[in-house]
Amino acid sequence: MTEEVSVMAENLEQKTAAYLTHELRAPLTSIRCALETIKDCEERLPADERQMLDIALRNTERLKNLIDDILDLSKLQAGRMRVFPVPCDPRALAAEAVESLSPLARKKGIDLALEVSPPCAAVDADPRRTVQVLINLLSNALKFTPAGGRVRVRVEAGKGDRAGYALFSVSDTGCGIAAGDLPRVFRFFSQAAAGERRMEGTGLGLAISRSMVELQGGEIGVESEPGKGSTFSFTLPTHIALEEKDPQPRPAAERA
Questions:
Q1: Which of 10, 21, 45, 215 has the maximum number of C-beta atoms within 10 A of its C-beta?
Q2: Are 44 and 80 in contact (CB under 8 A)?
Q3: Coil, helix or strand at residue 131
Q4: Is 238 helix (H, G, I), strand (E, B) or coil?
Q5: What is the pLDDT of residue 192?
Q6: 230, exposed or middle or buried, with CB in 10 Å at 0-12, 13-18, 19+?
Q7: Reading across the β-sheet that carries 165-172, which strands appear in turn?
Q8: Which residue has the higher pLDDT, 242 or 98?
Q9: What is the mean pLDDT of residues 66-78?
Q10: 255 or 38: which carries more pLDDT confidence?
Q11: In sequence order, what are the residues at sequence separation of 6 or more whose Cβ sits closer than 8 angstroms to the Cβ of residue 30?
């Protein structure tokens, strides 16, 4: 009976979190739109008020990311997360993620670039979820890389035990991750970085990314060394077109 009550309480907690985060979206969107409207006229504002406006906009973005992460976590815990793979150009997926975060990289003074090693066949992937994974990894890389550093996104055909897959990787020249922290970087609510204070974030991004990659039939991993940066990589299966089969011959009685 105790176990049944525990399960009911857990389900109620998940539903409550999903409901509250969903309800928070509407007022947050309204606040953000109002701030962006003011931003359009910021040249009329004093310098200190412009700074406060920028801080408010950054915090609404952080709150939006938090809401999105909690909603995804609720779906994963409830087994309701779905992916819809279709044939995709892996280069286009990576390019979309790089384009999305290029302004942030420029603002931080980080050299961000996409590298593709041809040939790279189409993959079976959910475009929205795959770009979300890449953006999560890129955001993490930019967060832990200092000004003047480099972040590289690479797409290539898998080799060896990764044959039949496309390999996506995000490498940075940031602080790196201590060996003892590597086994837990993909756990929920975990953050790890060598030589750095705890950074802002929910600790959900990497765990959600792992789940999304695995739901699409791929694997994710990380290699890192303190002071020398990190490389997060994941695989997605190469698309295999269904071969057209010759129609079965009809029985002789039907041909007569």
A1: 21
A2: no
A3: helix
A4: strand
A5: 54
A6: buried
A7: 111-116, 150-157, 165-172, 229-237, 220-225
A8: 98
A9: 76
A10: 38
A11: none
DSSP-assigned states of every residue in 13-67: HHHHHHHHHHHHHHHHHHHHHHHHHHHTTGGGS-HHHHHHHHHHHHHHHHHHHHH
DSSP letter, residue 160? G
Indicate if the alpha-carbon torsion angle 206, 89, 238, 162 is positive or negative: negative
Strand partners of residue 235: 167
Half-sphere exposure of 207 (CA within 13 A, CB side): 20
**Is-cis flag, bond preceding 85, omega within 30?**
no
Q: Which residue, 71, 77, 96, 190, is CA-closest to 140?
A: 190
The total of other beta-carbon atoms located within 10 Å of residue 146's CB is: 13
Tens digit of pLDDT for each residue in 116-171? 887 789 999 999 999 999 999 999 999 999 999 999 999 999 999 999 999 999 99
Helices (H), the chain: 2-39, 47-77, 90-108, 127-143, 205-215, 252-255
What are the tokens at 75?
Answer: 């779906």
- Phi then psi for residue 151, to 5 deg, are -130, 130
For 256, the token pair is 């007569």
